[in-house]
Amino acid sequence: KYRTPICVFLVSLAVTVCAVWLVALCGVCGWCQRKLGKRNKPGVETADTPDSARGRGEKKAIKGNKPANSPKGHPPDADGHSSVTDLANSLTGDMVMLSPGSEDDDGEGPVSEKLGRIQFSIGYSFQNTTLTVKVLKGQDLPAKDFSGTSDPFVKIYLLPDKKHKLETKVKRKNLNPHWNETFLFEGFPYEKVRERTLYLQVLDYDRFSRNDPIGEVSIPLNKVELGQLKTFWKELKPCSDGSGRRGDLLVSLCYNPTANTITVNIIKARHLKAMDIGGTSDPYVKVWLMHKDKRVEKKKTPVIKRCLNPVFNESFPFDVPAHVLRETTIIITVMDKDRLSRNDVIGKIYLSWKSGPAEVKHWKDMLARPRTNVAQWHSLKA
Predict the structure, then answer these.
(1) The pTM is what?
(2) d(CA 263, CA 18)
(3) Domain boundaries, the chain
């Protein structure tokens, strides 16, 4: 009689106990999950929410202080500065790029070093069938020697004949030479003269090695009125046969007056002259610190095998007290490594306050911008 109410009561009690047990169990699991998550991954946001992803991106940019001009493919270091390998490809915030031609130039164009100019006269005597060429003077010639000057002379040709040439005297240590020499090409009929091109090549005389070309001027004689002696001023151009081109080197200088140091960064070279039979070179760079024509310290880069456009990215600090700055010269020599014979000199740069115009400009810009890497392209010289 009382069995049915008792069964209903027991079933209800069992259901209630099960429900309470399930709720408690779910609550404990959730609490454990939260605790374990906090213990193992502190501060981690949910990865699959757009807002949290955007927040992490902003946080990373602020922490890294990522520079706006970092090159693509080259992430910055932890302190926000570009790595050393970026030096050859871009300019970091503390580097100034200059060029010999213009302070506003980005420095990536061709090196526009001025080669000076030459004054000469041309005339023809119909009576004597003689062509007269007077080499008068040069002006603002570049320095080719370590002493900051040159020993210029002029070769005269009537192209296409290269076998017969005439030469002026050498003017020692003079960037504005006066030759005032007259040369006669006798026995030339006027019709033959008009088929020729007057070619003047200015060179720097070197007693112990090959003469270094400075520049050239050519003028077709069929474009000149030869009846009277006429005088011309012509800007010198780089030698068309390539004899004057040895390549360019990108160098940065940094002067620290507090530490009394000059840091020379050999960054990269371009269009180096091929010195090997295979049409290439194995270049490396030597850097000499000179004081009053005496060698003080030498450093050099590794050799880059078979490359005419090598990237070096080598930095060399030198101790240079302020009182010897005016007597200091930095000689940078690009060499070609040869295993079987003596290493060849590809070209040199002389950096000081008394070198050529481009070199002096770089030196002065370095002193005017202390603690700043001042970069500039330089043409290599013999």
Answers:
(1) 0.49
(2) 81
(3) 117-238, 247-380
